[in-house]
Amino acid sequence: MSKAFANKKILDHANFTIKDQEFFVLVGPSGSGKTTTLKMINQLVTHSEGKILINNEEISTANLRKLRLSVGYVLQQIALFPNLTVSENIALIPEMKGWDKAKIADRTNELLDLVGLNPKDYAQRQPSELSGGEQQRVGILRAIAANPKIVLMDEPFSALEPISRRQLQIFIKDLQKKMDLTVVFVTHDLDEALYLADRVAVMNDGLIQQIAEPADIYQHPANDFVKTFFKEYRQNLSTISVENLLLTELSVNPEAQEVADNTAISEIINRLSDKEVLKYKGKSISSDDIICYIAGGDK
Question: Residue span of the signal peptide, if any (predicted)?
């Protein structure tokens, strides 16, 4: 698919498939076409060329209202209605889909409980009475309230301070697995992309440069742009303490090639480009282990 504005191509022949229940992340610098790609999925922006299919249905011929009500959408700008309560904000899509009031009330309370916001304390609050992290939680609940199978997220955590940001990353990753969601997530943050993604699509100047699993894209960049884009991240890895890495739960692989105890982490990273796993002080280290450690996640 392609998109042009005023004869300038914003997206140039992007071609990819997102798997059911996959956490798919679009990452790249500002202006690379990430948000345009996301908005074309629910036709907030129409594509100039090509086709977009959801469940084998071409969306340009689909009922637009039905499409948008069936796909959850979370923005960077939280966009809660300030004159509605928390429960009223969450209930918007179920109400538009014609759910009865009792079912909506049950669903609203269920979702607030799910994110640790006691309905008795939070349901009747105004958005202005919530912290930034709480507002974004409510925004996510509004997106999933009517049980969509697809959720689009456009840099939803970028305006939050680091602790709230990490908490919400953990929350959405867990929620995606619990609810079997297909999530398409836009970010410019490599750490966030590598932590959340099942697969990452790296974009630049309207072109998809590479699509791969985080470990593959990190170890085997497809071209000079991807290599340069990840350079700073790779440099940050060189400051990791190997001893701290070994405190994590690493496996033991007796067939792994052993490296000396005084081997620098940068050397281990370089050698992992050619080896699936290395042994260090009796424990096996893979590229996945390093990525998960840096991103703060579990393998």
Answer: none
